[in-house]
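Note to self: the last two entries modelled the partners one at a time, which told us nothing about the interface. This time every component goes in together.
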Amino acid sequence: MSLLSVEGLRTHFISRDIDNQVRVAHALNDVSFELEAGRILGIVGETGAGKSLTAQSIVGLLRPPARIVGGKVTFEGRDLTAMGPDELNEVRGAEIAMVVQNPRTSLDPLTRLGDQLVRIHQAHSGGPAAASRQRALEMMEAVGIPDPEGRARAWPHELSGGMAQRVLIAMALMNAPKLLIADEPTTGLDVTVQAQILDLLRDLVARFNMATIIITHDLGVVAHFCDELLVMFAGTVVESGPVAEVFRAPAHPYTQKLIAATPERLTIGQGLALGGLPPDLYNLPTGCPLRPRCDFATNLCATPPPNRDVTPGHRALCHFAGTLGGTATERSA
Amino acid sequence: MTEPVLDVTGLTKRFPAGGGRFVNAVNGVDLAIRPGETLGMVGESGSGKSTIGRAILRLTDPSDGQVVFDGKDITRIPMGKVRPLRRDMQMVFQDPWSALNPRMRVGDLIAEPMKIHMTLSRSEREDRTEDLARRVHLSTEYLRRNPANLSGGQLQRVCIARAIATNPKLIVLDEPTSSLDLSVRAGILELLAEIREQTHAALLFISHDLGTVKLISDRIAVLYLGRVVEEGPAEALFDGPAHPYTQSLLSAHLPADPSVSLHRHVLEGEVPSPINLPTGCAFHSRCPVAVERCRNDDPPSERLSDGHVARCLRIAENGNRIPLKEAT
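The predicted structure of the combined assembly is written out below.
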């Protein structure tokens, strides 16, 4: 059994418009994946694809009008979506920890760093405060913070962005989580600092055998730091599989365009841009959500696409998965 | 060879930081861009790249140095004389959402620079607005809408249409694709390449994204703590980075291809404060091949090949290569 199993997760934003008519934004529509201990999963997709919402749905951090309307999130055999707030609070911060994009806004500006780490340990593990303090120093050391004792007395505003991100990672590790979710952990950071943080994360995943989800829009991060990959579009997983396999032979037209648009593959003058507006989540097209933007779309695409196995473990949600190569013009020729 | 349209020498900008201290954002930068050429400027946060762009356009006043635009020294001319020059030098910013007045219609936004800088009849202006929209591949039906109805990529096209409306000789683009999704980013880069072809404008392309800069630039300048540490033709600089900082910056870049094996050198620590600049070479505190002299001596400018220069005193003694490790 997998550590984490997400099955058919659907999260909608249900609100009322000015005429008191119910409006539903179909933000997540049938998200499914599994994750084993010690594996790193990357989730990529454009703005509004549902990457962060997937993470928030898993840990139950949704705020109205967002609501899970279907599906199951099974963590170590327990269904998280069926848990009450108290029960969830036991799991969150202890067995499942989260690192978010903007480290500075995630730290309490009025509490010394050491006390913030101790607080989260005390909330879950209890025990003598001295033990929590000791663990805080160990974790700060583990994430490469120089002079942990001095830094424990520092205030959040005294930290650089890279240091603040290290503190957040140390905080996430305080209760030895089994699952770490990192939402854009390096997005605001410089590349040289990004390299430090990613190296650190991978080292920690190996040392503590954590399952890890990295949400990112940077395919470079996925290519070099993740084992598996989920590509999301309009709240659905359009392709999933081992990183090397998906990069080698992307099977979904969206993934193909996404990879072709990376600076490494792009040559100016090819007209490769994926045109069109992001899909309207209030009014998704029938069948494949990519249909209006897809070069390969046929009448068949107005019917729901099947989730096809391309190779074992590599799946794509497309009627033509695995049969589409090159460009549309090459194919019709 | 054609004369550069922009010639910057010794550009320096200090911001007061209280207590008689200064943030030394830009420390003696020399740059030149010729018509039709694209200079990419890369560096991490705090390297001064945005400040340089703004100082060139006099959006902030340089503390020292000289900015010669189109043969005229514009460093210290009064603001009343700078404004007419903006017809010939335009800027595109990172965040198109905040760069455009949300209460104006897209058509009026595109026409605004023409109203300010050009004497055109109303119908000429309308024709030109439609023409500009077509040139940036924006459907003319958007011209009657407000920015809120457009996506980020479309808004950036509006910003580019505004920037080229007056046929400028220089366009400064400050992270023009950084806030956009990957797939949209590719379209904007295509558009910029087209515009450069059509208008022969010089582009100063500021970005922290090495992959993007490599795609669009003829030459690249690498900044560290407000200084150009290396400059050269894009190919030469990517193939043979000479400055230890450039080498580590390139090695930290993650190509979006898992089959490319990484040879990396992860730098220790972070960029020092620009308030207390390190003496000697600004990079010595993080440099893996620094020697004692790097602390005190200003690094000389070493010429590596035609147009490729780097400021590092270890180059002359062949000690500038940093050790790269194959990543696991």
